[in-house]
């Protein structure tokens, strides 16, 4: 049986950063990077939008401004992003302030999905040339903490240190891993929302600020804006009972691709369960499967014009008269979102959209589309032993799936932080 200094589970930004962080302090370390998919995955594949301003991507329960600043600096130094400019925003800021909305100014970089794929290829090549073993289509099944053995679907390997970074798609995997290894955690929060799609002329702020971050009352916010060669996609997840479900998301290609004139972004509402203390994951799966039932196995889309009138959108109604652009995710089912989304979420999101239309007039054009559901799973909150995300002896849990980050830069920073913990512990 091969024994590694460190086995890393997950090849997203958190796992990649952990590998680079370990090699930085111990170039001769023997590292195995496992990925259950057939390609290196994670947030770098999905539009590859990076934010380099506190507190975006850094959950306050795990990060202070001071700690995050150091890791943001190291992340930026390593990835060397091209920071995008921001102009002509004072009018939007004044409008937002007058109605109790905050527009965050965030330093951003955008590579696009195609640029992200090139970055992943470069990073993986660099790791492999440094001696890291990258094994795709190999999934961690279980571990034996007593013998420090990791069992995959293909073999058994020994580890000295184990870093688990499954990302949001691996949320339930991590939950089961923590249960099996008696790691205490909570999972009581959820972000639920819609993805909005419209013409750029209806949301022109993106010409001056690629991914504008608006914070609304009632814990509602905009998230993950895509414009230019932008499109909405559906992503498949698997519930704890084995049933598949879909959540929508947004992508955009780099500026190398011709613009289709569309923009999309999410509006999300956060909720925490307290009494009784319920599982956000279980609730998310319930909502997603309700949406699948309502949409006949697909997400639902509804035009703003129909939503205002309280009627469902129909395929026949997606015409070229008032509804003046074709949905980029044509597989969605035209329908009525209010049949599937709880009123608490829907009221807050609609209120936020009306406020946003005051700040950026034209957003709520009758042709604008709402896609549902968009659900974000980063609510696992392990009980960590130290500030380096060690959850059990020699086991570190990092990235969005472990709740230590919300996005690429936060995930990368959490990987570096876990590597720092391993370095300090081993004296490297």
Largest sheet: 8 strands, mixed
Under the CATH scheme, the architecture of the largest domain is 3-Layer(bba) Sandwich
Number of structural units classed as domains: 2
Strand tally, please?
22
Q: CATH class of the largest domain, please?
A: Alpha Beta
The CATH topology of the largest domain turns out to be FAD/NAD(P)-binding domain
Q: List low-pLDDT spans.
A: none
Query: How many separate helices?
Result: 9
Quaternary status of these chains? single chain
User: CATH homologous superfamily of the largest domain?
Assistant: FAD/NAD(P)-binding domain
Arithmetic mean of pLDDT = 94
Q: Over the alpha carbons, how many angstroms does the gyration radius reach?
A: 22 Å
Shape: globular
- Give the CA-CA distance, first to last residue: 24 Å
Structural class: alpha+beta
**What percent of the residues sit in helical stretches (DSSP H or I)?**
25-40%
